[in-house]
Design a protein that fits this description.
This protein has nine helices and nine strands. It is of the alpha/beta class. It has two domains: 144 residues, 3-Layer(aba) Sandwich (Rossmann fold); 82 residues, SIR2/SIRT2 'Small Domain'. The strands form two sheets. Strands 3-2-1-7-8-9 form a six-stranded parallel beta sheet, with helices on both faces.
Amino acid sequence: MGKRRLVVLSGAGISAESGIKTFRDSGGLWEEYDIMEVATPEAWERNMDLVLAFYNQRRRHLYEVQPNAAHFALVELEKYFEVDIITQNVDDLHERAGSGSVMHLHGELKKVRSSTDPSLVYVLEGWELKKGQTCELGSQLRPHIVWFGEPVPMIPAAADLTATADIFLIVGTSLNVYPAAGLVGYVKRGTPIYLIDPGHLAVDHIPNLTSIKEKASIGMVRLKEMLMNQTDQNH
């Protein structure tokens, strides 16, 4: 018997405990910035300097924070399961914790890409992307981020992966961000689904759901122990 597959959908709540500001919570980034001014293709056309400064600030902050207990709990579960993470986050905390399979739906903060050819993606050295830094075609490099109003190219692959789950876990996301929130619809019928979130979410429509109303670090450690105990009992 091979390992069962645990597919994880993670969101901003798992990174918040590492000190990364989320966009939607009170005190979050949208209160400091108008979303339309920093995270749309139109903003890039209108005020490239502001958009570059915004993401440089995010990137510099990312170098100052560390993965937390929730990230490490997912790594430990790799001893027991095939763990595949689909994340809405643009940070690299899953990778830095040691997770082996991470799919980024909304891009990656430490990468940049050509503003004319989206397939030309590069790892940025350091935290600062400047005006005048170009790809090999000579066009300005932009953040490798899926902005509002842009398609999410990884969604079909994420849906296919979700459909293979033996267990599906949602952690740190309130299931308000589409198309990512729609992935739960691809979970095979009868598959156990776990949701870790301290809030009261409207999830009554999701079958086979076990809700753990805790922040990500506490909830993940609790779930890790539950799943490991189940696995031990089955052996």
